[in-house]
Specification:
The protein is built from 21 helices and 8 strands. It is of the alpha/beta class. It binds guanosine-5'-diphosphate and magnesium ion (MG). InterPro entries: AAA+_ATPase (IPR003593), P-loop_NTPase (IPR027417), Signal_recog_part_SRP54_M_sf (IPR036891), Signal_recog_particl_SRP54_hlx (IPR013822), Signal_recog_particle_SRP54_M (IPR004125), SRP (IPR004780), SRP54 (IPR022941), SRP54_GTPase_dom (IPR000897).
């Protein structure tokens, strides 16, 4: 993937005490190939590489005490700039309601994203959302929105599929006013390809609803196509933001990197899965760090805080920081961590996790959690606090007591050890992040 390729390109330069212009050229050549291979727009790549090169061979970088790290810092900063620099927040109406219009091709994730965002803004901004079902063309599109609405307890306005979408929106807005909704999300139809009728309908919906945001929903897996689609929609409708879906999938990542540079429209949210809570605000700097394998510590901690109660999260942070995490804590966290989503996703966010040899051992088979619990419960308090003392005879006793095998006990102890090692790494970098220079 892109991350692997870029990390490889950075590897040679990272630890260097002396970096020459030739080293920089070599690195940017590899970066250029990695970006092109990830389907980043070639014009974007060209100007990106030019900027990085100019900055990297600058006097202050190559003559600094840590030139290799400074060069990587330049790459990280320029990747961040490419994706828009700062996080771009939702534009709420000064006078409610705030109206969000979702547009895009069929299957991009409009309906799913509208429901996800409705729930997200209800939770984070205390909004009272109404969703309007204005896709009358796709079979079962209305039913899909209604099902999601029922699941989230968010009302859906619909008039079946025999009424013109523009009229549906008009009446939906009136209904929202009568029921005092301060957030309206309009789900529209997509096509397999951009066509004129679709654009015209969307223009009419835009004219009567005066949306505060026109979100283009695009599928990250479609690569360069996503960028082309964005350009066409932007020309006709004037987009205010992009929601990029399916970043959890096997995408080459190019679309996330070029869409802002090509269209000038910022990515505001990313979809990270099919579940209703799998939507995240987009942070260019964090994404850049993630791509460069520096991990996304802040997103990880935010995610932890969203699903843990605050005290627990603080406690966990402290324990990770001190690396005083015991097997008891491990057991305690397993339950909570399960609420955060698939464990593999979480591990992927940890710095260096993708480079770790033992990565496979670290991914925890969710079905085996009961077994893990039994093993830990069969340990004495001193064993739990200091697993190093668990010798062969203790392993045998624990296996017997928990109804597992010695191999199972060994595996768990190995996992725990790897996890602690990773935490140490991970908190080291997290601390670095808070200091001025994240690369020391
Ligand atoms: P629409 O035609 O644009 O309204 O697209 P839908 O909202 O119906 O989504 C199409 C499919 O993509 C559905 O199966 C969704 O569950 C799936 N989907 C949407 N967003 C994501 C995402 O972020 N990740 C993954 N893995 N699937 C998604
Ligand atoms: Mg839909």
């Amino acid at each position: 993937g892109l991350a692997d390729r870029l990390q490889q390109a950075m590897k040679n330069i990272r630890g260097k005490g002396k970096v020459s212009e030739a080293d920089v050229k070599q690195m940017t050549r590899e970066v250029r190939l990695a970006l092109l291979e990830a389907d980043v727009n070639f014009k974007v790549v060209k100007s990106f590489v030019k900027t990085v090169e100019a900055r990297a061979v600058g006097q202050d970088v190559l003559k600094s005490l840590t030139p290799g790290q400074q060069v990587i810092k330049v790459v990280q900063e320029e990747l961040t700039a490419l994706m828009g620099g700062e996080q771009t927040k939702i534009n709420f109406a000064l006078k409610p309601p705030t109206i969000l219009l979702f547009v895009g091709l069929q299957g991009a994730g409009k309906t799913t994203s509208a429901a996800k965002l409705a729930q997200y803004l209800r939770k984070t901004h205390n909004k009272k959302p109404l969703m309007i079902a204005a896709d009358i063309y796709r079979p079962a599109a209305i039913k899909q929105l209604q099902t999601l609405g029922a699941q989230l307890k968010i009302p859906v306005f619909s008039m079946g599929d025999k009424v013109n979408p523009v009229e549906i929106v008009r009446q939906g807005l009136a209904q929202a006013a009568a029921d005092h909704h301060d957030l309206i999300l309009i789900d529209t139809a997509g096509r397999l390809h951009i066509d004129d009728n679709l654009m015209e309908e969307l223009e009419q919906i835009k004219t009567i609803s005066h949306p505060d945001e026109i979100f283009l929903v695009v599928d990250a897996m479609t690569g360069q196509d996503a960028v082309n689609v964005a350009s066409s929609f932007h020309e006709r409708l004037g987009l205010t933001g992009v929601i990029m879906t399916k970043l959890d999938g096997d995408t080459r990542g190019g679309a996330a990197l070029s869409i802002r540079a090509v269209t000038g429209t910022p990515i505001k949210f990313v979809g990270m899965g099919e579940k209703m809570d799998a939507l995240e605000p987009f942070h260019p700097d964090r994404m850049a760090s993630r791509i460069l394998g520096m991990g996304d510590v802040l997103s990880l901690i935010e995610k932890a805080q969203a699903s843990f109660d605050e005290d627990k999260a603080r406690e966990m942070e402290k324990k990770m920081r001190d690396v005083s995490f015991t097997l008891d804590d491990f057991l305690d966290q397993i339950g909570q961590v399960r609420n955060m989503g698939p464990l593999d996703d979480l591990l992927a966010m940890m710095p260096g996790a993708n480079k770790l040899k033992g990565m496979k051992n670290l991914s925890i088979d969710e079905k085996k959690i009961d077994q893990v619990e039994a093993i830990i419960r069969s340990m004495t308090p001193s064993e739990k606090n200091d697993p190093e003392i668990i010798n062969a005879s203790r392993r045998k006793r624990i296996a017997l007591g928990s109804g597992t095998s010695i191999a199972d006990v060994n595996r768990l102890l190995k996992q725990f050890k790897d996890m602690k090692k990773m935490m140490k790494q991970f908190m080291g970098q997290a601390k670095g992040k808070k200091r001025k220079n994240p690369f020391n």
